[in-house]
């Protein structure tokens, strides 16, 4: 009553409003619902999907699995992942508890339109996206991008059926009954006949736990899968050939077996030369050449020939060198740099005047596989260096930035073709051991020095009056050139390059051990006996060295030393030294562990006896007398022990490990092993290093022997990642005293059961063993009284018959019958009639020797592996087809853009945007630079960007930047510099894989170069470089060159940039006049080093880890505002970027300005 009296008018108003809303919105809503219902029922959808093959390990754990349609979104089904177990929280926090595949229409724009993987429908955090074939009703199988804005994962598949596995092996379920075919015991399970099996199986709705594989289905399936693999491999090979034509690269199929080939070393290298030319070589940095190889004698002869016959004095020492280790370098990154530099030199030689042809004094037989190009003066040379530098050169190549500043002919990398000259820098001058690197060198157009060139940091100009003609490529100092160091002229020929990429290190020739003979010291690699600290005795090393030297002379004590022992002992005790010992006294001293100490105390007595802690002099009445009187018995005991440890029999140089039944360990153990050294009197075998490493596993594996010193439990042969490691995989304690390694009896793990399948043999395992075929005897019987069928015999009876078959199939005492006992019964076997008689039950059965059949426990995993191989090949095929399509589309797009570019009259920014794809494909061919028309919009855009790049809180000198007026803009088009820049970008991108590093953004607005497609993944940004007018032509022509950088740079001798325009103003020439120049450039920072202070002595990027240089270097240095400068209390005001490789920057535009 109250409502009607007080609020009836309000009710009428609300009702009218509701009716209007219904009329306006409800009817269209009903229409939309009908449309949605039509979309749902228009076509069928897949109720279940399977996701597999994701190559991104972290994301794969989230998205792979079985999905079921649960509801609808935007007219298409939503699929939810089925969780088989609750996921654990990850490193970055809670793991999503589910995953969805859903469709999003165009309501939020084209970028959101497509299929998505996410933890929740419509979630901002997504894992993958597929925008292809958006209008199709069925979900697309491939083409998924991971992450959503990343590259397409070519192996990820979303299918309506599970990935092929064991389901297509045609397993059949067989019901069985318990019975004894011969009425004996114990009983065994027999398969039922097919009709009975079918009846029971129809009644039994669940799966049988132990399916028995049908032999009739498995064996044809095995052959069919082999044929499928062969067919897919053939198809992929054809696709590779088509891609080769599109990408203009040479691909060859010998790569997979190249390193394992029995071809001679120089033959292998000739085969690899083609791969090097195609930049396809993918092997480790270097590999040791076998010590028996003829290459050793070739190098020795070449080094002797490379020492001029009229050179004596110090040069004569090279004639006494003995080469016993050669390492061949295989570094694809260094080779790419070398090939790229060769092309540059070749191009520059074609455009300039002819140059003189040069030859090397080093015999080309040293690298007979090398296809040297005489048109660019490519020759073989030698570089002498010390042991501590060889790994850095082999890994990173020659680096001119690390060259000495005191070089007589400039701050470059020095080479020679005279071996006696390289000996001076090999380390042999002070320690009788050293290293030589044989290298390829591109001299190009050389400059013949007429005297010292100490201030040279870069190649001289061809014409000092016209720098536009270019530079020489190298400097040559010939014998007779004045050195400026006195009347003595240059003696040897030297080659100097100022770009380390002009040389490629081919081989390392090493000497790590010193041998003393009556003639003096020799270079060798291994000693015949090596002192072992654990046993206190000498351990023999591999036999090949015995044939290399006079074995009798070298077996004498005091003949062989490792490098460290030479430094701390041998150089002090040998004849001619201050504290020399007789050979007998030295043998006593070494066996008893006498130490040499610098005689700064102890009254000048350098020799310390460890047994009695007393110091002695070197005289015969001092140390030798003491040892003979007090410790001779201990010496004899040590000597007998060492002699007993010397092997008396030959060993197997190569072993093959196969058949391991422990799957996780098998990948670590199986493979080819070679003897490399000795341990406890027996050889140590290392797994072939070219084998594919196990993911997240040890990089190598060893087989070694351990004697009884640590007890009987440790005595025997071991598998481990390193010799003596606490983490071991397998152990064999049988037949410990035998000289030859035991083939079987290995326990996995070391305290577990014996793996009966694991074999360690001296020859390769038979490939057919992978199928584990077994021969089984059979008897004819009817388990249920129905039709008879052949049944398998028990294993004990099978073994007896098989042994008789292997010897001779016949009876005893001249008859056709023999007798056996098995299964608790005695049987008579008629060899002629092939009948088995039970002598107790008098039951007779026909028998036969069955056909070879696979051991199904081995075949099923093999078939699964073949399925995985087929799946991989199919994925590769799809990827190759996609790549072929992309390449063809790219070619068509580039041709279209080129046509548009040539006919375009668009503004500057549009033209540059069209050219960007041409730059990326390195196709741009036009003059170095071009002036932008004065009325172009680019002037106002750049002016505004420079003002934004000047921080608002900066005044004083910085305020002048706000009065800058642009007078001219020149766009740079230099394909040579662009190629260098793109090549360096690829290198940085490769080095950043797997690294975590900070992201850097620029204060300079990107609209300054709106066409630039910058790569944030490598910290590619836009920056400014201030310079004077006279240097702009040089930068536009040759790019930024760190070799010309000032030595007084606060953060190192590099090229400096900034993203704050007021800082670049200081270097633009505007400090002394009313105008100047900026260069707007692209810059790749990669992994930057944020300095905490000055780095004035820096010539190259800092190491990531100073204690482990193998981890690599940073790519740039950043000085942030507030960094102490060391020049007073005032810290760094502006942000500066420093690079030590000029190719990391590309000059885009030269901006000329004046200050109003």
From TrEMBL:
Residues 761-849 form the WWE domain. SUPFAM superfamilies: ADP-ribosylation, WWE domain. Residues 271-522, 914-1156 form the PARP catalytic domain. It comes from the Eukaryota. Gene3D superfamilies: 3.30.720.50, 3.90.228.10. It holds the Pfam family PARP. Keywords: Coiled coil, Glycosyltransferase, NAD, Nucleus, Transferase. InterPro entries: ARTD-AVP, Poly(ADP-ribose)pol_cat_dom, WWE_dom, WWE_dom_sf. Its main location: nucleus. Residues 222-256, 863-904 form a coiled coil. Its EC number is 2.4.2.-. It is found in: Nucleus. Belongs to the ARTD/PARP family. This is Poly [ADP-ribose] polymerase. It comes from Durusdinium trenchii.
């Amino acid at each position: 009553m109250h409502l009607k009296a007080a609020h009836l008018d309000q009710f009428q108003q609300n009702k009218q409003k509701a009716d209007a809303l219904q009329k306006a919105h409800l009817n269209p809503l009903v229409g939309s619902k009908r449309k949605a219902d039509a979309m749902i029922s228009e076509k069928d959808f897949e109720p279940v999907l399977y996701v597999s093959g994701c190559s991104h390990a972290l994301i794969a754990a989230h998205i792979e699995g079985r999905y079921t349609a649960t509801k609808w979104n935007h007219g298409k089904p939503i699929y939810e992942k089925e969780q088989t177990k609750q996921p654990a929280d990850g490193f970055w926090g809670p793991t999503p508890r589910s995953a969805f595949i859903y469709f999003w229409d165009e309501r939020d724009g084209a970028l959101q339109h497509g299929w998505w993987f996410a933890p929740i429908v419509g979630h901002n955090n997504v894992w993958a996206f597929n925008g292809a074939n958006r209008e199709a009703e069925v979900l697309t199988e491939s083409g998924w991008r991971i992450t959503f804005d990343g590259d397409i994962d070519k192996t990820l598949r979303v299918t309506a059926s599970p990935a092929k596995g064991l389901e297509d092996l045609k397993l059949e379920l067989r019901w069985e009954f318990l019975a004894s075919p011969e009425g004996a015991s114990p009983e065994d399970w027999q398969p039922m006949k097919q009709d009975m099996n079918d009846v029971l199986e129809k009644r039994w709705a669940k799966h049988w736990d132990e399916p028995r594989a049908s032999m009739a289905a498995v064996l044809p399936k095995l052959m069919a899968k082999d044929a499928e693999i062969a067919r897919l491999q053939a198809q992929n090979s054809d696709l590779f050939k088509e891609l080769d034509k599109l990408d203009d690269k040479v691909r060859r199929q010998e790569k997979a077996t190249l390193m394992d080939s029995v071809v001679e070393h120089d033959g292998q290298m000739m085969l690899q030369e083609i791969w090097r030319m195609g930049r396809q070589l993918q092997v480790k940095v270097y590999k040791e050449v076998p010590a028996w190889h003829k290459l050793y004698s070739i190098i020795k002869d070449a080094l002797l020939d490379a020492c001029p016959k009229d050179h004596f004095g110090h040069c004569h020492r090279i004639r006494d060198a003995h080469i016993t280790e050669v390492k061949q370098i295989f570094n694809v990154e260094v080779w790419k740099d070398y090939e790229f530099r060769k092309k540059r030199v070749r191009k520059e030689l074609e455009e300039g005047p002819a140059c003189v042809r040069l030859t090397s004094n080093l015999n080309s037989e040293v690298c007979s596989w090398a296809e040297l190009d005489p048109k660019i003066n490519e020759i073989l040379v030698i570089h002498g260096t010390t042991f501590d530098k060889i790994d850095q050169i082999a890994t990173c190549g020659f680096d001119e930035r690390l060259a000495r500043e005191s070089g007589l002919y400039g701050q470059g990398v020095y080479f020679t073709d005279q071996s006696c000259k390289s000996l001076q820098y090999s380390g042999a001058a002070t320690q009788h051991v050293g290293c030589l690197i044989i290298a390829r060198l591109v001299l190009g157009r050389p400059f013949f020095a007429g005297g010292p060139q100490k201030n040279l940091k870069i190649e001289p100009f061809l014409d000092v009056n016209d720098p536009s003609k270019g530079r020489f490529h190298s400097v040559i100092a010939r014998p007779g050139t004045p050195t400026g160091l006195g009347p003595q002229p240059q003696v040897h020929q030297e080659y100097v390059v100022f770009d380390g990429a002009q040389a490629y290190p081919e081989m390392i020739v090493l000497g790590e051990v010193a041998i003393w003979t009556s003639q003096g010291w020799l270079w060798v690699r291994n000693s015949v006996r090596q002192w072992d600290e654990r046993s206190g005795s000498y351990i023999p090393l591999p036999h090949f060295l015995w044939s290399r030297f006079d074995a009798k002379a070298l077996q004498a004590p005091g003949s062989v030393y490792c490098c460290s022992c030479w430094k701390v002992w041998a150089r002090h005790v040998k004849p001619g030294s201050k504290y020399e010992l007789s050979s007998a006294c030295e043998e006593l001293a070494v066996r008893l562990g006498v130490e040499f100490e610098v005689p700064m105390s102890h009254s000048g007595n350098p020799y310390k006896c460890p047994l009695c802690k007393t110091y002695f002099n070197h005289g015969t009445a001092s140390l030798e007398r003491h040892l003979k009187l007090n410790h001779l018995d201990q010496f004899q005991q040590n000597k007998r022990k060492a002699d007993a440890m010397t092997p008396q029999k030959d060993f197997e140089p190569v072993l093959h490990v196969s058949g391991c039944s422990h799957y996780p360990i098998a990948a670590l153990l199986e493979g080819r092993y070679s003897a490399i050294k000795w341990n406890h009197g027996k050889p140590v075998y290392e797994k072939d290093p070219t084998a594919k490493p196990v993911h997240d596993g040890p990089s190598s594996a060893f087989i070694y022997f351990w004697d009884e010193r640590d007890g009987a439990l440790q005595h025997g042969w071991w598998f481990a990642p390193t010799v003596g490691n606490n983490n071991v995989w397998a152990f064999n304690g049988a037949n410990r005293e035998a000289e030859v390694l035991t083939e079987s009896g290995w326990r996995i793990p070391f305290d577990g059961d014996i793996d009966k399948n694991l074999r360690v043999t001296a020859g390769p395992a038979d490939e057919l063993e992978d199928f584990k075929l077994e021969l089984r005897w059979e008897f004819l019987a009817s388990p249920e009284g129905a039709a008879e069928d052949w049944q398998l015999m028990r294993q004990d009876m099978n073994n007896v018959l098989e042994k008789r078959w292997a010897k001779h199939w016949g009876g005893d005492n001249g008859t056709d019958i023999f007798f056996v006992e098995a299964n608790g019964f005695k049987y008579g076997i008629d060899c002629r009639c092939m009948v088995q008689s039970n002598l107790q039950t008098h039951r007779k059965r026909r028998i036969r020797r069955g056909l070879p059949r696979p051991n199904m426990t081995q075949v099923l995993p093999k078939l699964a592996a073949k399925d995985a191989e087929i799946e991989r090949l199919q994925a590769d095929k799809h990827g190759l087809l996609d790549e072929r399509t992309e390449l063809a589309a790219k070619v068509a797009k580039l041709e279209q853009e080129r046509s548009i570019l040539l006919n375009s009259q668009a503004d500057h920014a549009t033209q540059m945007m069209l050219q960007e794809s041409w730059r990326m494909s390195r196709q741009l061919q036009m003059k170095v630079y071009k002036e932008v028309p004065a009325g172009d919009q680019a002037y106002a855009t750049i002016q505004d960007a420079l003002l934004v790049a000047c921080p608002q809180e900066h005044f004083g000198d910085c305020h002048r930047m706000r009065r800058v007026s642009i007078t001219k803009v020149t766009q740079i088009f230099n394909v040579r510099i662009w190629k260098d820049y793109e090549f360096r970008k690829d290198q940085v991108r490769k080095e950043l894989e797997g690294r975590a590093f900070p992201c850097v953004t620029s204060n300079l607005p990107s609209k300054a170069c709106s066409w630039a497609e910058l790569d944030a993944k490598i910290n590619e940004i836009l920056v400014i470089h201030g310079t004077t007018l006279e240097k702009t032509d040089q930068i536009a022509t040759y790019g930024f060159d760190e070799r010309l950088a000032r030595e007084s740079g606060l953060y190192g001798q590099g090229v400096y940039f900034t993203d704050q325009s007021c800082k670049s103003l200081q270097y633009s020439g505007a400090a002394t006049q009313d105008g100047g120049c900026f260069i707007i450039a692209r810059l790749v920072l990669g992994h930057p080093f944020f300095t905490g202070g000055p780095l004035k002595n820096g010539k190259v990027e800092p190491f990531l880890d100073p204690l482990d240089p193998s981890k690599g270097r940073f790519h740039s240095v950043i000085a942030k505002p507030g960094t102490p400068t060391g020049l007073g209390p005032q810290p760094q005001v502006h942000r500066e970027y420093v690079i030590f490789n000029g190719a990391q920057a590309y000059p885009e535009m030269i901006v000329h300005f004046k200050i109003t």
